[in-house]
Specification:
By secondary structure, the protein is mainly beta. It has no helices and eleven strands. Strand 9 and strand 10 form a beta hairpin. 30% of the residues are buried.
Length: 120
Amino acid sequence: QVQLVESGGGLVQPGGSLRLSCAASGSIFSIYAMGWYRQAPGKQRELVAAMPRGGSTNYANSVKGRFTISRDNAKNTVYLQMTSLKPEDTAVYYCNVVVENSWRVRNDYWGQGTQVTVSS
């Protein structure tokens, strides 16, 4: 099994910044991809940013130029640096990790979610 622990959410004023972290632990042979999703009240969960192994980083159009995803492979940790935050960024943010086993079978794991609220 794989456990994900998220941290870094909170309340911030418009224009402010926050940094989310997600650390993966447990039975990890290899991590194929790490990313962040978010879900606002009454809306579907949407991709915010994803970083596959050896591939190009993907961002939602709404966060391009404001959010930056990064990962520390040695720590199995993914980060989301969020700047110039807007009220519409308010949502529960979920970490997603795709773990690959020795047979190249991939499984998705999700964090517990962390609330980000942008409000004055």
